Amino acid sequence: MNLETLNETNCFGGRIGFYRHDSVANNCAMQFSVFVPPQARDGATPVVTFLSGLTCTEENFMVKSGAQRVAAELGLMVVSPDTSPRGDNVPDDPDGDYDFGLAAGYYLNATEQPWSTNYHMYDYVTRELQDVVFDNFPGDRERHGLTGHSMGGHGALTIGLRNTHLFRSLSAFAPICTTLYSPWGQKALAYYLGSDTSKWHDYDACEVARNVQDPSHYSTILVDQGGDDPYLGEQLMPDRLQAACASSGLPLKLRIHEGYDHGYYFISTFIEEHLRFHAAELGA
After folding, report:
1. C-beta separation of 187 from 99 below 8 A
2. Which of 24, 80, 229, 266 could form a disulfide with 260 if both were Cys (CB 3.0 to 4.6 A apart)?
3. Is residue 36 over pLDDT 80?
């Protein structure tokens, strides 16, 4: 695998870098970012992967969240992949909107053309990115946590609950909790998976939570939500996630923070608590 370094620089005693590689899963070049903490000089460190939301790239979280200071203190490697395949031959939203296509891969495997040629973000995150990261960076594959924001929160919950063999800790910021009922999700999954909504259940966080095989794998699932988030009622619906987790016995800790919206001021406020949560779960 040919890994191209786009940029690297020191950060809080560690190293942050941006990289590109040819992706078999998505049939295009993919980019991702990695913060390697200073503790990695002495051996493999736990890893937290952050899945970003609509309109984002591999840069947004690393630039805006302020995660590196705390990650350096705790000895956590942080990974942030791009949100979708990209390139001249990758199809975009036919409506020209922001909520589908490029930067909106929804962390699923598309089955409908033309999307199915490139949009395999589920396989990318659960298979290809795993090997790219752990074959090239000093992370501990056995101590891996997953988190994300909005569309990426949906991805974190669905991927984390379906792949407990890969992840030992799980959290989310303002996740899309149900693609079956969210207008964003309904649009995207209709394009990617077709009109048969029974095929959407594997990519709906509430359905996955309700039917999870091992509700005791995670000691706690931490979800933070802004109380003044403009998308709270129409798009995100954390009350549905809370009900689904209650029905299956998943240990959800849902916190609603009044006065916070959907953006990176919200994420940067609570990222330290999430990283400390993951560090404790991963034994950092």
Report:
1. yes
2. 266
3. yes
Q: What is the pLDDT of residues 169-203, one digit of tens each?
A: 999 999 999 999 999 999 999 999 999 999 999 99
Q: Identify whether the C-beta of residue 100 lies closer than 8 Å to the C-beta of residue 188.
A: yes
**Rounded Cα gap, residues 240 and 2, in angstroms:** 43
Q: Report the alpha-carbon distance of residue 36 to residue 140 in Å, rounded.
A: 12
- Mean pLDDT across the stretch 19-29? 98
Name every residue whose Cβ is closer than 8 Å to that of residue 95 and which is 6 or more positions away in sequence.
none
pLDDT of residue 109: 98
- Cβ-contact 104, 187 below 8 angstroms: no
Kindly tell me if the per-residue pLDDT of 1 is higher than 80: no
Q: Is the pLDDT of residue 257 over 70?
A: yes
> Residue 87: which residues within 8 A CB-CB, separation 6 or more?
28, 29, 118
Distance CA 65, CA 87 (A): 27
Q: In Å, how far are 137, 138, 198, 242 from 164, measured between CA atoms?
A: 22, 21, 23, 20
Task: Please list the active-site residues.
Answer: 150, 229, 262
Tokens of 212: 């999870």
Q: What is the CATH number of domain 4-282?
A: 3.40.50.1820
Domain ranges in the chain are 4-282
Tokens of 239: 């009350």
Three-state DSSP at 104 gives strand
The mean pLDDT of the chain is: 97
